[in-house]
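User: Predict structure, ligand MV4.
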Amino acid sequence: MFNKILIANRGEIACRIIHTAKRLGVGTVAVYSEADVNARHVSLADEAVAIGPAPARDSYLAAEKLIAAAERTGAEAIHPGYGFLSENAGFAEACGDAGVTFIGPSSRAIEAMGSKSAAKTIMRQAGIPLVPGYHGDNQDEMFLLGEAEKIGFPVMLKASAGGGGRGMRAVNGAAEFSEALRSAKREALGAFNDDRMLLEKYLEQPRHIEIQIFCDQHGNAVHLFERDCSIQRRHQKVLEEAPAPGMTDETRGAMGDAAISAARAIDYTGAGTVEFIVDTDGRFYFMEMNTRLQVEHPVTEFITGQDLVEWQLRVAAGERLPASQDQLAIDGHALEARIYAEDPDNGFLPSTGSLGHLRFPAETPQVRVDTGVRQGDTISVYYDPLIAKLIVRAGDRRNCLRRMLEALRQIQVAGVTTNIDFLTSVISHKAFHAADFDTGFIDRYRAELVPDKAPASPDILALAALYQTLWRDSRSCREAATSDDPTSPWWATDNWRPNLVEEEHFSFHDGTGEYEVGMAIAGNRREHSERDYVIRTGGQVMSASGRLEADGRLAAILDGMQRRIDVAEDHNHLVIFEAGNTCRLKRLSDGSHSTEEEAAGNLISPMPGTIIEVIASEGQQVSKGDTLLVLEAMKIEHTIVAPHDGTVQALHYRAGDMVEEGVELLVLAEISSI
Ligand code: MV4
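Assistant: Predicted complex:
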């Protein structure tokens, strides 16, 4: 076994590899870009080497920097993870040339599977079933049309160099052929710099089922059964499970044998995945082979009880496979959900930001969370917006789905938008429960899976107002306790005001509309007990009381029902989590009586904009009303003035900087009264 390995990757997969290396007593070297100085994978590794700027091509894709980092730290092997350089034959070759073991197959095997059409030629010779089609060199349009007619429409045009659905077109008849060919070629040229095409019979409602294989350097090869990855959105996997629902032992055996034959045909070593497309009659056809460890490998680990990264390290170190085929068996069912920072209501666009609040379910033997981020970390534009993979197992599929729903309910994320509700909708869907799905599932049920946003319920609005009030009161208590005059009526927490207001007004915006909440104290003041309130919103009147617990949690009684909610503050929003439901409310007014003052002296950026001028300097004493800086937002200049006398402690921006909405522009310390 190796003494030390370098992990040429980041995020959850780097963390996952480090985890196994540590368990095996193998030293670990992380690499990191400028965006990842404080990343989780860096803090988990024994050593870490800086490899350059945030863009991947300058860091995680810079082969020579990675090899230099291995040489410098004495790492004997490089694990490429997935993505980045994991399927780059040149990198595997360069590692070998530098005397560093590439933890993966030979560069020849990677290369052989890099071209779709070359891979199909190899697989046909090895007797692996292929979708009927043409994958030869003749690219003449009339010839290809003739082949399409021989196959019979509908057909699929695919880029020979392709993958991931790019340069792919379904063609329903001869009349569409010319235009489809032109547009597929254009896309393929842009994506792969190669516009050669292959043709296949178009399969209706297929499933994507893949076989995990493993080969050692001594001629041993096994498969570790299948994963069903049919639930995809635009060729991006969303849910993966093992075993595949409805799979028979007979088909499983035949697919496993075919996958092993595929691996043997290219003298494969290490972990690999053979992807098959399965038609509605259960016939399977080779699609492509992925010459790396896949994102969804944990479901295979759960049903087999094996650690595939351990297998990879042992095989790369020259050991024999840890188990033979007859020692491997399926135990139970496993499901993986990919938690992404993306916005289903906005075309699933990646959502970037700082994870101001982050909670995952507790890990148990049945619930696994693979993540590369911690609370406070940033999802940036530079890398994949995956927050975590949630993997669960149970004795059977039904219980597995229930366990996944429960685990999803326990995730709380503030700071970015996520696909958690979308995942919950997919897993709760009747057709998914019935395992009645294919690769078209998400498109078919899109309207149900991404419903229009429901307006915030009166309950949640009431709880938000209660939270605001209790939070403000607890702050008053703290301020009173540390002030010169703790008994001053100004610190009173009983709503006493010089100009008595009977009812306080809050307003919130939830993205669908604006809501008013009125809140008043009910009955008499009682010492040392929770105060009772009457809350009015949306035509409802509710009684409420509650207390704040540690960590922002609110324990409330609303109309005689106990409610427990977690609240995170994200810029000027409240993010409210209750049993799997998340509600993000923008505070338009928070019920305090200082709106005029706040308007005059807000130190928070009111909207996204650009800093035009910074007038104050760090350390400067300023008086209430002094201009501190000028911001341009939405073509309007906003003057930021001091809300009170004080000292400028920190200036976060310079002229020309862009700022997001809600960020703190500077810190103004109040002049000490001592
Ligand atoms: C197909 C197909 C139907 N018929 N080939 C999409 C990505 C690429 N790896 C292969 N893909 C497909 N090839 C034939 N002959 C349908 C798909 C397909 C698909 C396949 C697997 C998982 C998700 C998919 C989503 C849409 C289309």
